[in-house]
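Reopening: Non-structural maintenance of chromosomes element 1 homolog still failing for me.
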Amino acid sequence: MLGYCCRQLIKLCGLFVLQVHIVPTIPKAEWPPPVFCTIVALRLKPFCCRSRNMSQQMGDSHRRFLQTMMGCAVVTGREADALYRFCCEAHNTQHVPHKLDDFIKTINSKLQPLFMEIRKGMSEDSGEQCYALINTSQSDITRMSSDYADNELELFRKTIELVVGSESGKISSTDVLNSADSLTTKKMKKSETEQLLNRLVHDKWLNENQGEYTLSTRCILEMDQYIHTMYEDQVKKCQICHHIAFQCQICDNPACGIKIHNPCVARVFKEKTEPKCPTCGDFWPHEIP
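Support: Ran it again with your exact input. Result attached.
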C-alpha cells in the first residue's frame, strides 16, 4: 500500500499515468537499512508537456530516491546517505560524498509546484538527522482526512495538544484514552482508541516507547506551521538547533526560560563541569544526558 505522501503526490500532481507495484529492488545483503529492502517502483508515463519537462530535468537517480521516499515517508540521515549512494550507483551517476542536500535540493525544485518537499529535521529522541517527504499545501490536520475519520483526526488534535501542554513532551496512553471521552464527533471505544494509536505509530505520526507517546519527526516537520499557529504562546524553538522543542530541558531563570533539546544539551554541555545557560549565563541545574 502506498504511503500518505505518495498518494498526496499523485493527487496533487495529476501529471502522470501511473502503474504502481512493489518490487524487491535492493537485496538485503547489499542494503543495511531494512526499511529499504523493498522499494516502491513507479512507471511514469507523461501525458503533458509539463511532465515531460520534469522527466528531462530530473535524472533517474533523483527519481529513484523520490520514489523510495514516497514509500517510507521519513528516513534517518544514515539511511538517506546510503540511499543517495545506491541510487547514484544504480544509474551510473557520479556520487559526490557530502552532497546529499544538493541532490535533494534538485528534487525539491521539482516538488515545489506540487506543494511537496523533502525536509530535513532532527529526531528529538536520538538527535539524529532525519529527512521526511511532506505536504506543504495545507497547514491543518485536515490534510490527513483521506486516511483518517473525523473522530480520529479530532483525537489526534487532542493528542498533539496534550504533548504541547506536557512538561516532558511525552504523554501516556491513559492520557489519550481519557481525552477520547471528550470527543465532540463520534465517540470511540477504548479498543478503537488503542487501534488508532497503533496506526498513528505505524504511519509515523507518533513514536511509542514503553507506553509513552511523543510526536514523531515526521509529525513535527509536517505539522510545524499548524502547531505554531494553534499553540503560539506555548511552543518554543531549541536555542541550539532552532527546531521546535518538546522533549527538552528549560532554563530555570524565569527571565530566560530557553529550551534546549535533550540531544543538544548532551552535545553543548559535553565534558563541562559547570554548564551554564548559553543565553543568560545562569548555572544549568539539569542532569546532562
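The first strand starts at residue 16 and ends at 23. If you still see a failure, please send the error message rather than a screenshot.
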